[in-house]
Amino acid sequence: MAGKVLKLPEIANELIHNLCEHHMALYARVRWYENRPKLVANEDARVRLLRSGRDFAAWLGLTPANKSSGGKEKLGRITTPLGTSLAMPCRAVNG
User: Fold this and answer.
1) Spatial distance between the Cα atoms of 22 and 41, rounded to a whole number of angstroms
2) Is the same domain home to 61 and 41?
3) Ramachandran assignment for 49, one of left (phi > 0), alpha (psi -120 to 50 degrees), beta (any other)
4) What is the pTM of this model?
5) Which of 3, 4, 26, 93 counts the highest number of beta carbons within 10 A?
6) Are residues 36 and 65 in the same domain?
7) Residue 62 lies in a domain
8) How far is CA 71 from CA 63, 76, 78, in A?
C-alpha cells in the first residue's frame, strides 16, 4: 500500500495522522533513552568502571533476592525498596 493514497473519511485520516505523529514522538524518545547511558558513561568516570549490566544495577542500588539453599546459589527478582520506588511515578500517572 506504500505510495497509494487511500480514500478514507476525514476522521480516519486525522486518526491515522495523529497516531503516526505519536509513534514518531515515541520513537524519538526511545532513541534518546537508548543513547543516554552512553552519554552519561562518557561524562562520569565511575560509570566506565562498570563491566556489565549486573554491575550497573548494583550501582543503582538494585539487588536480587537471594534464594540459595544447600550451597547452590540462586538469585531471584529485584526486591530492594528502591526497585519499587522507581515504579511509583509510573503507577501514579497510569492510575
Assistant:
1) 30
2) no
3) alpha
4) 0.43
5) 26
6) no
7) yes
8) 20, 16, 21
Q: Are 59 and 45 in contact (CB under 8 A)?
A: no
Element at 77 (helix H, strand E): strand 75-78
pLDDT at 90: 53
Look-up of cell digits 539453599: 69
- The answer to whether residues 79 and 95 belong to one domain is yes
Q: Which H or E run includes 65?
A: strand 64-66
* Number of structural domains the chain divides into: 2
Q: What φ, ψ does residue 30 adopt, rounded to 5°?
A: -60, -45
The closest of 56, 60, 54, 50 to 85, measured between CA atoms, is: 60
Q: Which of 27, 56, 20, 21 has the alpha carbon at shortest distance from 41?
A: 56
71: containing domain: 53-95
Distance CA 57, CA 75 (A): 14
| pLDDT tens per residue, range 9-32 | 989 888 988 999 999 999 999 999
- Asked if residue 95 and residue 58 are part of one domain, the reply reads yes
